[in-house]
Each structure stands twice: as structure tokens, then as C-alpha cells.
Amino acid sequence: MIRAALSAFLVLVVASTEGKYIPKTGRRVPQLLSRGWGDQLIWAQTYEEALYWSRSNNKPLMVIFHLEDCPHSQALKKIFSEDVEIQKTVDEDFVVLNLVYETTDKHLSPDGQYVPRIIFVDPTMTVRADITGRYSNKMYAYETGDIKLLLSNMKKAKKLLKSEL
């Protein structure tokens, strides 16, 4: 009886880890800073810290603005955290920060304060106004159907960084 229960438990544990992104460096301890956007990723705690990491590691910064009680934010978070390619790209090529509050830096809300919104910042601390979503009235908004566009924009941010070196 105990053996059967233990076997069932092991099957559940193995099944729950399939399809999730695991960094090359091995499984990491989940961070509270991820807020569910990618528990195996390393997240900056503040905008200032993220800018420092971006500059120090010469990686673009991706800032995700969201709210815990926003259904659009929750839907995007679910798709974002389950997409293996996005998780891998973020882990290897980006500094990431997710915020549930607005910053005082007006450069991070060039077309208003709304959620979810994703802004890319290069290591020179320049907000990339040329990397936008598909909406003209909310240029940095992404929905669940925009995940391929988001991945494309992530690759664009990475490519722009390399071309400017």
C-alpha cells in the first residue's frame, strides 16, 4: 500500500516537471520575485538593479508591468511561463524585471500606464521605442495571441544589441 502510494507520488512529480524549461545550470530555487512569470529565471528586484545588471552583463532588459488581479496579465503570465522557448531566451539573453507598480521613470510609460505592458531597455539605458506590440493605442501591450510577436521582439532586441556593439 505504501509502495503504491509512493509510486503514484513519484509519477505525479515527474509529470509535473515535463515540458517546463530547466536552465543549463540546473534547476534553480524558485524566486518570489518571479510572481509566476518564470520561477526558474533570475529576476531583478528593482529597476535600478535591473539597469545595473543589464549594463554589467551587456544584455537587454525586459520590464514586464502587470497586476495580480488583472485577467489580461494573468492570461499572459500563464502563456509566458509555459512557453519553453521564451523562458530559455529570457534566461540566456535578458535581464528581467516584473513590476506590479508604476515607476517614477516616465520613459517606461511613453504611451500611458496600462497592463500588461512589456518594455525593452538596452544596456545604454535607452528605452527601445522601436520594439512595440501590434496595437497603435497601447504600443507595448501584449495579449496571449501575441506570444510569437513577443518572441520576435525579444530576438529583435537581442539583434539590435549586437548590431550596436
From TrEMBL:
InterPro entries assigned: AGR/TXD (IPR051099), Thioredoxin-like_sf (IPR036249)
CDD domains hit by this protein: AGR
Subcellular location, record wording: Endoplasmic reticulum; Secreted
Coiled-coil regions listed in the entry: none
UniProt-listed SUPFAM superfamilies: Thioredoxin-like
Biological process, per Gene Ontology: intestinal epithelial cell differentiation
A Pfam match: Thioredoxin_7
Highest taxon of source: Eukaryota
Similarity section: Belongs to the AGR family.
PANTHER family per record: ANTERIOR GRADIENT PROTEIN 2 HOMOLOG, ANTERIOR GRADIENT PROTEIN-RELATED
Protein name: (spotted green pufferfish) hypothetical protein
